[in-house]
Design goal:
The structure is a single chain. It is built from nine helices and eight strands. The protein is of the alpha/beta class. It has one domain: 3-Layer(aba) Sandwich (Rossmann fold), CATH 3.40.50. Helix 5 links the parallel strand 5 and strand 6. The N terminus is likely disordered.
Length: about 300
Amino acid sequence: MFATAKPLALALALALAGCAMSSDAPPAATGPDGLMAWPDLLERERPEPQAEIRYGPDSVQVVDLWLPEGSGPHPTVLMVHGGCWQTEIADRRIMAWIAEDLRRRGIAVWNIDYRGVDREGGGYPGTFLDAAAAADALRAQAPRRNLDISRLVAIGHSAGGHLALWLAGRPRLPARSPLRSGNPIPIRTVVSLGGLPDLEEAARPPGTGCGTEVVARLTGGRFDDTSVPRLAPLGVGQVLINGLQDRIIPTAYAEGYARPMRAAGDRVRVRMIDRTGHVELISPGTAAWAAAVEEIEKALGQ
């Protein structure tokens, strides 16, 4: 997510290992230019999900389920974490704070994990197959957990924004793609938070804070079934929320993606949030997260 991934990976690992502050505290902003730094989020007390569900044998082939109080049926969000598609940098736990925020609002969260490109079996096709299997596992669990998936919203942060949009585009995958599977779970709306949907653009220098080489590891040089614009039109509502001061994802990426998708017939809106970097996008109490909640609740009909 930054120009050098290893220091970030270490910082995230240390922060996720321990907690210091209440998750109800107003978000601190100790980073450059008054923006949030990763410890401002990750050193807060981390909430825990109500259930953990395995969809494969690897230790990261897991979904965290966040269940609201009451019998339901609960409107549901499919959540995808970022971390430059690298398990060493981040896992599903980085989304715990916004998952808990949605749960308190009466929305269930299906927070998926997957093997990154830095893990055996990750990259192409494993990272994509994991994301697909984790998403499709929601269909089997929905009746027993009383989850309403009729208006399913997918939300992803950073690299997870790409995967959330890609999951919505699975019905459009080429017939011969090894990533294609029958009857993918239908997604009604996608909310991308500082996402990287156009992998061809991200693969060109200077790239993003993730670097260009990680895109090569993720795609194996194939963009026809990995880069979302190649799957246009997706036929689902799409909202891109980005920080104007995001140092990880260039702001031009959002409209650069939206223009050709609109031309193909998709409904794509872009919301740029001022005084917002990359961390604010997944931090309860920020203007960016308030915008995301607004879009999620609207898509769920609430």
